[in-house]
Amino acid sequence: PILVYVLVLLAILMAGSRGGLLGMGGVAVGVLLLYGGVLLRKGERVYGLASIGMGLAIALVISCTLFVLFWPANRESAEQTFGSVENRSIVYRCTSWLIRDHFFIGVTPGNFTIRFPYYLTGPEAEQYGWLEAPEEKVLEHAHSEYLEIWSDLGVVGLILWLATLIGFFRFLWWGLRSFEQPFSRWLILGIAVGVLGALFQNLISVSLRWVASAWIFWTFIGAGTGWVVGKFRPKTDRPKPLPFWLIPMAFVLAMILFLPNTKRWAADWHFVRGRDLLQHGSPKAEEELQRTIELNPRFPQSYYLLAGHYYTNSRFEDAIENYKKVQQLRGNVVVLTENLATSYFKLSTTLEQEADREEALLTAIELYEGSLERHPTFPRLYDYLSRAYHRIGLERLSVEHRRKAIELYEKWFQWEFKYGRARYALDLAKNYYLEGDYESAFWQVRNAKRWGENPDSLEVMKRALFNADPSLSAKWDREEVKAIESAKTTTPN
């Protein structure tokens, strides 16, 4: 068993699974505590106490580590090492507010995703990233099984859950000290520490109800209970009445937790499949995402991905309809409003009637201006407003907003943000081009290429630049040669 544990631990270390490490810590605690208890029963007091002491020490180390990681003063340094600490701290804080308002009976299973967004607002939403990524503005779980059970079922459900777990471990402990066969004892010990490891991992994760590991967890619960019940001898060592309330309570609790979420899990499954198909350009992606919405009409991610799919395929009216649905569910986050406005802008280029084109453009301008009031430092809003004003014939406003966009794009690059910088560089190049500053536009196109922008988009901009200033074509070739030579000198033999 020790060799197996070490091998699994090494595999988890290589995989970089921090939740797995936490679970392995729980396994170690379980083994040491249970084995220490067995040694004490055998009269080996010193070894038994030493084993229990080591188990408690590991539990203390885990507790202190989690406390230090999620303590506000340490989040910034912890974020650099553990990545998701900051976001999970925000989720835990907002979930605690939800629990405060639904303390005793919770929001009922399946409603966490609906209620949670009303608590993740303001600075927390901006820090979490929801303002810049509306497709992520849904949280499927609380990143802690215990917090989610508390939010779903209230403190009453949490107490029942913990009582069931305590009863299960008491029952396994009875079997561990009652059976004489080594196989039965090792089996019970393995099941107990496996369940305990899962419980430790789920301090910062949710995998006991809606992912594959849930099947393992509940199979262990059932197997452990069934094995002990099946090994009872008649009458002479009949057990305490513990298993007879433990089994029905576990079953009822599992049904309470599972059944209300079946549609949600089915919707999640179709969404993940649809998202993967969309990434591979499959025509079946739309069908899967539509199925997600049928199962869960309040699934903003599906509406958002469908809207993007329709936009890419020039189905702008369908895109607008789905963006509006996300807007109803999640509010006017900046990128969502930008995409909705841009859909109206693109729609105006496809309409035949002048009045319809003007109406679509004015709607786009209104949306852009509304976002700009809330986010006055967002360069793309100025950029798109400039284009819309140009399209509708308001040249003075177009130039004014274009120059402001250039200023903000340059500031954005000084902050060294990485998200979207290739696209932003190309947008900045277009603005320099419209201002007649072909040299600056040239270097921004070079930046966009270096940062991985779509080659087709680059070609359009390059042709426009070379037509405006033919000397830039030769300059581009020289820069390409320099880039190749630089790559050769920096590449190790």
Any key phrases for this structure?
493 residues; mainly alpha; elongated
Give me the secondary-structure topology.
Layout: H1 2-15, H2 18-41, H3 45-70, H4 75-82, H5 85-101, H6 112-115, H7 122-128, H8 145-178, H9 182-201, H10 212-230, H11 242-258, H12 262-279, H13 285-295, H14 300-312, H15 316-330, H16 334-348, H17 354-374, H18 379-392, H19 395-414, H20 421-435, H21 438-450, H22 455-468, H23 471-490
Helix pairs in contact: 1-2, 2-3, 2-9, 5-8, 8-9, 8-10, 8-11, 9-10, 12-13, 13-14, 14-15, 15-16, 16-17, 17-18, 18-19, 19-20, 20-21, 20-22, 21-22
Condensed summary:
With 493 residues, the chain is mostly helical. It has helices at 2-15, 18-41, 45-70, 75-82, 85-101, 112-115, 122-128, 145-178, 182-201, 212-230, 242-258, 262-279, 285-295, 300-312, 316-330, 334-348, 354-374, 379-392, 395-414, 421-435, 438-450, 455-468, 471-490. The protein contains 23 helices and no strands.
Give unreliable regions as ranges: 77-82, 131-137
By helix and strand content, what is the structural category? Answer: mainly alpha
What letter string, H or E per element, gives the SSE order?
A: HHHHHHHHHHHHHHHHHHHHHHH
Largest sheet: none
Strand content: under 5%
Number of helices: 23
Q: So what's the overall shape?
A: elongated
Summed over residues and divided by their number, the pLDDT gives a mean of 78
Q: What is the helical fraction, as a range of percent?
A: over 70%
Gyration radius from CA atoms, angstroms: 30 Å
Number of strands: 0
